Automatic annotation (TrEMBL):
PANTHER family: MALTOSE/MALTODEXTRIN TRANSPORT SYSTEM PERMEASE PROTEIN MALF (PTHR47314), MALTOSE_MALTODEXTRIN TRANSPORT SYSTEM PERMEASE PROTEIN MALF (PTHR47314:SF1)
Disordered: annotated span: 1-20
Family membership: Belongs to the binding-protein-dependent transport system permease family. MalFG subfamily.
Domain ABC transmembrane type-1: 307-526
TM annotation in the entry: 39-57, 63-80, 89-107, 307-332, 344-363, 393-415, 436-459, 505-527
Keyword Electron transport: no
Pfam families: BPD_transp_1 (PF00528), TM_PBP2_N (PF16296)
Record's function text: Part of the ABC transporter complex MalEFGK involved in maltose/maltodextrin import. Probably responsible for the translocation of the substrate across the membrane.
Source species: Streptomonospora wellingtoniae
InterPro entries: MalF_N, MetI-like, MetI-like_sf, TM_PBP2_N
Protein name (database record): Maltose/maltodextrin transport system permease protein
Amino acid sequence: MARERSGAAGAPGGAPARPPLPGGSLAPRGSVAGQAAKTGMLALAAAVALWAVFPLYAAGQWAGVGVVVAATALIFYVYLSKRAVPAKYLLPGTLFLVAFQIVPVLYTLSTSATNYSDGHRGTKEQAIDQIEASSVERTADSTPYTLTVAARGSSPDGETVFLLTAPDGAAYAGDEHGLRPLTGAEVGPSGRITGAPGYTVVPPSQANARSEEITDLAVPTGSGTGIRSSGFSTAYEGRSTLTYGSGCDCITDSRNGRVYTADGERGAFVSGSGDRLPQGWRVGVGLDNFLRFVAEPETRSSFLGILTWNVAFAAGTTAMVFALGLGVALTLHTQHRLHGRTAYRLLVVLPYAMPSFAMFLLWRSMFNADFGLLNRILGLDVDWFGQPWTARAAVLIVNVWLGFPYMFLVATGALQSIPRELVQAARIDGAGAWQALRQVTLPLLMVAMAPILVATFAFNFNNFNAVWLTTEGGPFPTDNPMAGATDLLITYTYRLAFGGGGAQYGYAAALSVFIFLIVTVMSLVSLRRSASLEEVHR
């Protein structure tokens, strides 16, 4: 009986003791749940690895396969090992840092050293196939196909693909990469394909909207042959007028005998007179994209002008939101007799609580020259977005209005952390309100706010939404539609990469590297200078 009472009281608080495991050890609480969570996470890691490896293997990306296998092996080693305890906490953040920070930076750097752009996306072999397929002309013995315009994937907005039915009833899918058999296709009585796994048939209304894309699409089928559309319901396989010769490494135009020789440095086929075919291939160009900033007069002037305005925009926005936010915070902090201070604080924070993209669009309509609210209330007739300086002023006004509430919140918190006795002691010693602010409050305030100001400058240096949703970078000079008066480097990069004049991914990547270096250098210098403010606390 004594043993029973002693055993019952052995656990803290009188709780029953946990049953011993073989060997005399006690089962740790939550061990089953912990093992289940670990097993689930490792199973998820394995599933993600399998999902990533198969497409890389199919595309022949052996480096990518090796990286996925190595990362998965590292995850299993760390979480199955009993010794690598610190790594269990560091590994997830490290992997995400590498995947979402280091890899994009390295990819941007590698892209900046190439001619990657429209017409220079793939390999030389792919360029040859496209050149031959795009010059296909119908001949008397051309093979006819029944055509169905489709899109890759489950949405009709995907990449355009030709679903083709041959005269013998065989079904194929064709795009710019070539023709391949189509399994599981549903063929209607007219021979048109009504459905196929992995594709969505494009309705006639949407096919009309992408008629130019359909007309330009050429499906390479072999040496000197290709398939082109003839309307939206038929296609034909014809012969190319531009054919490649491996002996001369050149393209010959059978219509006029002109020869285009391969230029490996430019990644294009160039004739003796300097003309070149629009389809080329991707090659390394070294520092050529970076040298464009100084070598080409038009590019140099655009880049320097945009850079100057970019720095002024970021610095001006940072200075104004700091002054306005701090001024409002000081007013509400020092005026103790002011009634309704809580309500005022709520009103000041409202712009920060609103969705920024909606506010930019709202302000854009308010600055409208014809029916904008500002011109009507103030009785003005100003074309805000029609002149460079008024457009810049409008962008600054909108950005400051949206940004100062955040600075107000930071300044309010920093002011409340400063002991009132310090300010009172300065006033007793004879310092005026301005002297107390400048000599006591502001130095203590800057210890907390200096890193915030650096972050605000870096954010506004790349504030894409503020410009794109308000002015879209305009107004533009008549002789240069690519560089506007309010363009930042980030909007200029976006227009180069995705603008209507043709994508220049390599040049845009080089510009992105410049932006990265500029922001990094300015941030490091600012943080080093602001570090001296910490001497205030010593």
